[in-house]
Amino acid sequence: MTLMIASLAMSIFFIGIMNIIADVYERLGIRSRDVGLAYLDLRIPELGLRGVYIVAPLLALGITAVLHLLFTRTKLGIAFRATVENPDLARVVGVNTERILAISWFLSGFLGGLGGSIYPLFLRLAHPNAGDDMLPSIFAASIVGGLQSIYGGLIGGFIIGLSEKIVPSLLSPYWAGITLYQYVVSMAILITVLVLAPRGIMGLIKRT
């Protein structure tokens, strides 16, 4: 809990720094807010899709497969799991838990940065607070899928992402402003899963 609060505090701090830098650039006449990056994306005429819609899902599947192999087929992965389940016992058997935690922070930062480099390609206009807009969806996807499983984040991400787009589009003929409340859909799914399956979908699958 302490690390989570510290991470949120650092996130707020760096977002503030980015906004200060963006304001300085704006005063210098350099456009730094609401920058369009979608034009950098490649288009696939044969499929009628932008490249990011192909690359992002494939990248997510590839990363999930690599993490699965890492955590189940390597000594480092076993050390990760031992550190998470019982750090004291892991230290007794010779696992350098401090090094494992450092590697885990590096992996988290790397994967977060990788996702952050792809996300602006989905946006018409990118801005310094773009990451904050995703926080409700990220929390919902993580908990809905299950925090104890690598596949949970992937499954939860697809469920939340598709729901936030499909449900508002289905209701838009009856309520024109429903698209502004797409995060309500993810929160509703999150609450439902917490009530029916507190450990998420993967926890429910493992239990059955």
TrEMBL record:
> Which GO molecular function, any one, fits this protein according to its record?
transmembrane transporter activity
User: What keywords appear on the UniProt entry?
Assistant: Amino-acid transport, Cell membrane, Membrane, Transmembrane, Transmembrane helix, Transport
Where does this protein chiefly localize? membrane
Record's Gene Ontology CC terms? plasma membrane
Q: Which residues cross the membrane?
A: 6-26, 47-71, 100-122, 134-162, 174-197
A GO biological process held by the record:
amino acid transport
How is this protein positioned relative to the membrane?
A: Multi-pass membrane protein
Give the subcellular location.
Cell membrane
Q: Which Pfam families match?
A: BPD_transp_2
Question: According to the lineage, what is the superkingdom?
Answer: Archaea
Could you say which protein family the record assigns here? Answer: Belongs to the binding-protein-dependent transport system permease family. LivHM subfamily.
Q: What is this protein called?
A: Branched-chain amino acid ABC transporter permease
Task: Please name the source species.
Answer: Pyrobaculum aerophilum
